[in-house]
Write a structure and sequence with these properties.
about 350 residues; 7-stranded mixed beta sheet; D-Maltodextrin-Binding Protein, domain 2; alpha/beta; 2 domains; 13 helices
Length: about 350
């Protein structure tokens, strides 16, 4: 398979360019203005003790969080500084949270499990729920013209997937749904950038990946073999935070404010999809058409963690253990710290 389609070439180039795991980018929060920039004045006046804090937010590549922060001015008058660190997918972000390199970040459903299996020091602190549960945020896709028509036909085939990612969980559950295990296929654990190259060059038979990469590849001719939708996959993601930040009462209070502002930023983006698409263009370097394709799958709201979320995560964690994808049982309630106030819903926090 050659890269004749310019959209697919652009996607692969984008993924290669963003392959560096961590790059720090200080936000201009002290000077940014925008539709959400006036919300912080009272908070700043009430908490002068927060002025010495700088919070690093992990940007899990592709959600436009840094561009949105600048566009909305949500941190403009915050009584602390923020900066963003860029990651290409979840597991390195979890590791950075555990080591204290970042304070907060959003990941899919699997990285907290694989991180906890390695005893990383972090907690799940909030849920990012999809507002479009019928729109799969990730898929298992096959190239145009592939003879593979069913999941059962993946037996013996090579599947590219980022290890320990939410897409890894999708593969595990999709195989299980047709009576297969990871031992029945060849899992090629590749970063999103390497996976894009392998898929485009025909070196793998299928690719499990999220948006915007999935949406762009589909627009270029790839075909969806399995959608990342219930009951095979979860549609929620999770915010995680560093234990040290959570265990410092003063910093914890400020961190809650960071999370609430970040959630308002995404709530504003949902209500302003054209602006959200522009933010993705600015941050990702993709075309406006590709950005608009990806925006629908990013629509979400942030809420506290509910018992049902813990149950879903525990079931997924147990499935990983049973499939020998992790070697240590993870007790999900032990890595949960619900920091948002009861009833918080980002979709109701901004207009």
């Amino acid at each position: 398979m050659t890269l004749r389609n310019p959209r697919l070439r652009a996607a692969v180039a984008l993924l290669i360019l963003t392959a560096a795991t961590l790059t720090g980018c200080a936000s201009k929060s002290s000077t940014s203005t925008g539709p959400l920039s006036e919300a912080a004045d009272a908070v700043g006046n009430n908490h002068p003790e927060w002025k010495g804090f700088t919070f690093t937010i992990g940007d899990n590549g592709g959600d436009g969080s840094q561009a949105l922060a600048q566009m909305t001015g949500v941190f403009a008058n915050a009584p602390y500084k923020v900066k963003f660190a860029r990651f290409t997918y979840g597991p390195p972000l979890v590791q950075a949270a555990a080591s204290g390199d970042i304070d907060l970040g959003a990941v899919g459903d699997v990285p907290p499990i694989t991180g906890a299996a390695k005893e990383y020091g972090f907690k799940i602190v909030a849920v990012e729920r999809s507002l479009t549960p019928t729109q799969a945020a990730e898929n298992i896709i096959v190239p145009k013209g592939s003879p593979i028509q069913t999941l059962a036909q993946l037996k013996g085939k090579k599947i590219a997937v980022p290890q320990g990612s939410s897409a890894h969980g999708l593969v595990l559950n999709a195989l299980k749904s047709v009576g297969l295990t990871p031992k029945d296929v060849q899992l090629d654990f590749l970063s999103p950038a390497a996976g894009a190259t392998a898929f485009a060059s025909g070196k793998v038979d299928a690719w499990a990946i999220w948006n915007p990469q999935s949406a762009i590849a589909i627009a270029a001719g790839a075909r969806v073999l399995a959608k990342g939708l219930p009951p095979i996959d979860q549609t929620s993601s999770y915010f995680i935070a560093n234990d040290a930040s959570l265990n410092n009462p003063t910093k914890r209070a400020a961190l809650i404010d960071v999370l609430e502002r970040l959630s308002r930023e995404f709530a504003w983006a949902v209500k302003n999809p054209d602006k959200y698409a522009q933010a993705l263009v600015q941050e990702e370097g993709i075309t406006l058409a590709d950005a608009k394709t990806a925006v629908a799958a990013f629509e979400s709201r942030v809420t506290p963690i509910e018992p049902a979320d813990i149950t879903l995560e525990q079931n997924l964690s147990d499935a990983f253990l049973q499939a020998d994808q992790i070697t240590t049982k993870v007790d999900i309630p032990q890595i949960v710290d619900n920091i948002l106030p009861a009833g918080f819903d980002s979709s109701k926090e901004t207009s």
